[in-house]
Design a protein that fits this description.
Length: 155
């Protein structure tokens, strides 16, 4: 499977999330500065709460924008015959099911359909990522006591 195709699809998803965060920030900012949210009593905190929400959206946007910037320049190395690290595409078998994981420093939890197969992006900090990190094709792994798995291939 072509890792650059996976990266492009992931970038599309993350850029859509950037647009959603920007729109949410704009709505929250508008709510914070709207004359209707001006405090009428000392217990009225609608405007203050909207400003906190806007600040949270802005912080998430800034973090994600930096991750997207870094991902645009990322070239996933070939991990064939090597220990798993960031940029590895790993096919595993767990509980009788075959799954594809793409290990990256951002985008964890996003599922992508590539060439008719589902690819799940995981981070090295995730339970599955930690279980796979530094292992090689043919090795077994476990991230839960009742979920042993086998690494079928690493690219």
């Amino acid at each position: 499977m072509n890792k650059s195709m996976i990266l492009k699809a992931l970038l599309v998803e993350l850029e859509e999330e950037l647009h959603r965060l920007l729109a949410a920030n704009e709505r929250a900012s508008a709510g914070a500065t709207n004359s209707e949210t001006r405090a009428e009593t000392k217990w009225d905190t609608c405007g203050l709460e909207a400003s906190y929400l806007a600040r949270g959206h802005a912080s998430q946007f800034k973090t994600l924008a930096a991750e997207v910037h870094n991902l645009r320049g990322f070239v996933a190395p070939d991990y064939t015959g090597r220990a798993i690290g960031a940029g590895a595409l790993v096919e595993v078998k767990m509980s009788g099911e075959t799954m594809l994981f793409f290990l990256l420093h951002c985008g964890g939890g996003i599922d992508l359909m590539i060439e008719g197969r589902e690819v799940t992006v995981i981070t090295p900090e995730s339970p599955v990522g930690l279980a796979l990190l530094d292992k090689q094709s043919g090795e077994s792994f476990s991230f839960r006591a009742d979920s042993p798995g086998e690494i079928l291939s690493v690219e």
